Amino acid sequence: MRNQTSRSAEHVALFRALETARRRHRVFTDPYAKGFLTGTHRLVAALAALPAAGRRIEEYIDRRWPGGPRASAVARTRLIDDLALEALARGARQVILLGAGYDSRAYRLPGIAAARVFEVDHPATQATKRRLVRATVHPSRRGHVRFVPVDLVTGDLAAALRTAGFAALEPTVVIWEGVTNYLTAAAVDATMRLIAASTASGSTLIFTYVDRAALDGTGDFSGVTEWHAAVRHGGEPWTFGFAPAELPGYVAARGLRLALDQSAREAADRYLEPLGRHEPAASFYRIAQAEIL
Predict the structure, then answer these.
(1) CA-closest candidate to residue 10, choices 51, 56, 49, 44
(2) R_g (Cα) of the chain, nearest Å
(3) What predicted TM-score, i.e. pTM, was given to this entire model?
(4) Fewer CB within 10 Å: N-end or C-end of the chain?
């Protein structure tokens, strides 16, 4: 997807808009998600404002993709929100949204405007995002954000960040959501090493990944075939995954300590189940948090 807006970014924005449209038992509010949508996605989000329609739309998505991409996106969004806020409370002065897509945390998280925020993304997706941000987010809420267009596979991330004003070795929280599974092993390795070398000790890296067993067919995961087929059909196949058992050693070899690693299913159990929301979420899609040593 080198020269067009990411379809996966559009889908996640839709899932966040659907969650925000809920009148009861929602786990976060993203007032900007709907504004990042166009065409059919925006129409679906508008229909979801009708309570009965909103539930039917969610149920249709969950039946068509039984692996649970919608609820997985909802649960991971809330978990990452909480982890990011904790990092900011501990003193992070910079935020990198790595592969930002249509993430609106730079504009909606309480207190984030006190930090410098760097939105890093592929130039094609970011060009669309910047246009939508100008139309959706008031200028007073975006002065702390700097856009960094770069391809994580072929570009020079370190140089792009320096050009944008990133300060090396300052307390930083890096959010790398919904990205690693679309990269190469070499790109993941290089990016993680750069983050560890460029941020202060105690900084936080929050990232998502797909269990490698879901890619090589060795795992028994409900709905993985349908979900992977959908992203492949959209031109964005999964290309990389970690084995959870190997992740602590992998990050340690790159100067980090693994602090959290849980599935989207576990995050849904934490945030959705207590509200009586028994929705499918993926055990093969995972959220991890690591501390820079």
Answers:
(1) 44
(2) 18
(3) 0.96
(4) C
Residue 197 burial (CB count, 10 A): 13
Q: In which region does residue 235 sit, left (phi positive, over 0), alpha (psi from -120 to 50) or beta (all else)?
A: left
Closest CA to 279 of 234, 223, 233: 223
What digits encode the pLDDT tens for the residues 180-207?
A: 999 999 999 999 999 999 999 999 999 9
How many C-beta atoms lie closer than 10 Å to residue 276's C-beta? 8
Residue written as token pair 């299913």: 265
Side chain identity at residue 170, one-letter code:
E
Pairing status of strand 204-210 against strand 256-263: unpaired
Average pLDDT over residues 220-238: 89
Structure-block tokens of residue 81: 């929100």
How many CB atoms are closer than 10 A to CB 124?
A: 16
Classify residue 52 by burial, with Cβ atoms within 10 Å: 0-12, 13-18, 19+: exposed
Distance CA 96, CA 112 (A): 11
Alpha-helix runs per DSSP H in 115-184: 123-136, 157-164
End-to-end Cα, the chain, rounded Å: 34
278's tokens: 């028994």
Q: What residue type is 49 in one-letter code?
A: A
Q: Smallest Cα–Cα separation from 99: which of 155, 32, 140?
A: 155
Find the Cα–Cα–Cα–Cα dihedral 123, 97, 264, 227, rounded to 10°. 0
